[in-house]
From TrEMBL:
It comes from Equus caballus (Horse). It comes from the Eukaryota. The gene is TSTD1. One of its GO terms (molecular function) is thiosulfate-thiol sulfurtransferase activity. The lineage of its organism: Eukaryota, Metazoa, Chordata, Craniata, Vertebrata. GO terms for biological process: sulfide oxidation, using sulfide:quinone oxidoreductase. This is Thiosulfate sulfurtransferase like domain containing 1. Residues 15-74 form the Rhodanese domain.
Length: 74
């Protein structure tokens, strides 16, 4: 996915259109773990808040961000 600016329209697409564009199933509103992250943390939080506002109750932000994950796991 291109970024936070594209996320809102993507999450409002019909499932078939989402599948065609992104080659994966669209998340369901009731999915328990829809995890967002970014390199530093700010965009991941914005994406999480946007998804929650659209009704994705299981949207979560990986607060450590990608950079921390790389340091821990990489």
């Amino acid at each position: 996915m291109a970024g936070v600016s594209e996320l809102e329209s993507a999450l409002q697409m019909e499932p078939a259109a989402f599948q065609a564009l992104y080659s994966t199933q669209k998340p369901k509103l009731e999915d328990e773990n829809l995890i967002f992250f970014c390199q530093m943390g700010k965009r991941g939080l914005q994406a999480t808040q946007l998804a929650q506002g659209l009704g994705y109750t299981g949207a979560r932000n990986y607060t450590g961000a990608y950079r921390e994950w790389l340091q821990q796991e990489g």
